[in-house]
Amino acid sequence: MPSPGPATTRRRHTKKPFSGEINLDVRDSTPDWEAFLPPKAPAGAPNVLVVLYDDTGMASWSPYGGRISMPTMDRLARDGLTYSQWHTTALCSPTRSTFLTGRNHHLNGFATISESSTGFPGYNSHIPPSNATMAHVLRDAGWSTFWVGKNHNVPIDEWTAGASKKNWPLAQGYDRFYGFIGGETNNWYPSLAEDNHYIDQPYLPEDGYHLSKDLADQALKMIRDVKQTEPDKPWYMWFCPGANHAPHHAPQEYIDKCKGKFDDGYEAYREWVLPRMIERGILPEGTALTELNPMPDGTFSPTDEVRPWASLNDEEKHMFSRMAEVFAGFSEYTDAQVGRVVGYLEESGQLENTIIVYCADNGASGEGSPNGSVNEGKIFGGYPDDEAQNLTMVDKLGTPDTYNHYPTGWAAAFSTPYKMFKRYTYQGGVADPLVIHWPAGIAAKGEVRHQYHHSTDIVPTILEACGVEFPSTYNGVEQTPLSGVSMVPSFGAAPDAPTNKQTQYYEMFGQRGIWHEGWKAVTVHGPVSGKGHFDDDVWELYHTEVDRSESQDLAAQHPEKLEELKALWLEEAKKNDVLPLNDLQIIGNPKDFETFVAMEFHQPAPPSGRFVYYPGTSEVPERSAANTHGVSYKIAAEVELTPDSQGVIFAHGSRFGGHALVIKDGQVHYVYNFLGIPPEDRVSAPVPTSGKHIIGVEFIKEGMGENREGVGPVKLYIDDQQVGEKRIRTILGHFSLCGEGLTIGRDSADPVSSLYGYGFDFTGGEIAQVVFDIADDAYLDLEAHLAAAMSRD
Question: Where is the Sulfatase N-terminal domain (predicted)?
Fold first, then answer.
């Protein structure tokens, strides 16, 4: 096997003994600085840049034959290796946890996303000390370590400003962090954090802001900072853009570049892209195309169904095509930002000896439902989308006016030729693109590698290439062995050489699978299906060595092989904390709902039911703020006013759903924005005279609408006088899936109301405190609450 590259010495971090001399007088003593300085990486050690996209099926990108142009990735593929059988966990947080530690996702406590964690070892979303991160090990061995972009591995109980930061990036071994904590964010108005605290975005969309650009700017700053002070020190950076997760936001010129690319529809795309994947050597000759809706009725969620293209009218076809164009523009624009980083590495002479890993965390997302949406919050909140209204927004897709997601048909197309997509343990959910580029360590250029590998293999690959050994104990804690194997042998091997991986299990929301030595077994049991009765599952068997698309079920022909794999799955499940299986149906099944909610983390409320908030403080994440969803509530703001008073007293949410109390143009307004559906509900009254006042809001939930939204009167008070009233409906789930928390004295990002612009800080007076009281009504609509939690992935 060829050398893995310049760094061939295996390194462990050990404390160096003091070699100086200590006497009574310093004049007679000898210092030893080397005993106290951190270790240095081996001479010639490589840098590492890992670029991890979201929600991208293998058939999306140009290096794999797809229509989405990715010039930077194309270049890296031309000069590096493209992998045809690299796999993930089917969901983002679980996959990302494997990139952190090199252990299987259940061992990390990340069976699913942190928002839907439960009190079991494999499901609690807290990475145990026995699974130390690669960043710790590389930093101790002499690398600078950076994390830029998406996190989604901080447990939900630790998102607040006052929470422990031991699971935030800096405590996980990263010297710097800049990005967002949740599973998604608005790319025009992101919810940002830097190091251990939340921050505002540096400038606004009208000044050219987009999250992908900002992240590349920050990445370049971090690398340049290191190189100007420690030019010989290598670095490791994990670059995680918001792309390609919804909302799909992109500059107009990138959207326009894709005009007409998808007019033939998703079924035609599947027929078109498969031969191109075969031609490029990604798939073997004879690979079959699976059905568009491959699972039997009753075995999967109806929201994952695909509408045949021929069944759409012309307006729908135009809308659906435009959604794909926006997605493609988003992807290419982000690739251009990665290209800025790669360009700098070339200009500065670092590209040759930088290991670049360019990949995605799971298959294309089917969370847009069969019709897609201009505001995915409706989908996750269980509120029916208005397709007629959506069609009027076609020209706004990708702009700050929409929070869009394409329909399931494009998820199926971008996962060609496989069955299903994200969340499924079929290939459509777990087979992903991966390119590795390292001129100093990989002689081959432009070749495809067919060895079977998994996201758990990335950590051991980087460590071997860097010449660093993972310790058996870390900070006094015995370490769980790495679950993955190194991919370094594939760097110099023939394209079809045997893989050094033998077994990989899969499990997501109750669907199971296992790959072993070229064979794969998978259950016909869709995720979150509520089927239960796992002992009765029907299993399918595929010889993936020759049937990459899992199109030929061989269970009847090879019953012994199937039983062998089923037994092996259970063995792996017990070793990796996979049990108990959870496919609880969170929508439409109250019993399952109650079971799940009893297991999830509950933010404790004050005994009084009152939450008190103050100005000049950090944004409070929605899941840790007073829960005004599906309940009656009271809000009282203690303020001191002057004739010049104006601005936001409190705001929670965004233009896609939220509420706010604001003073503008001599009027006090309480605004309730129901899922971004116009018009906003407003209750207004003249601003009171100067002095101290209580401005109050009371919503009385009298019942529920046909879609289970809360309905009832909202009353506006100034001191003890009611000054306005209106009947409104309130959101049952959450205002947003991630970010857009509660702020006092300003609006943190995308404005809740069209009454005002970004920020609209309160001036000309003083806010003492704002009190939210939910004690009078303990009712919570748990179904919508959990539906939003489970979909934030």
Answer: 46-468
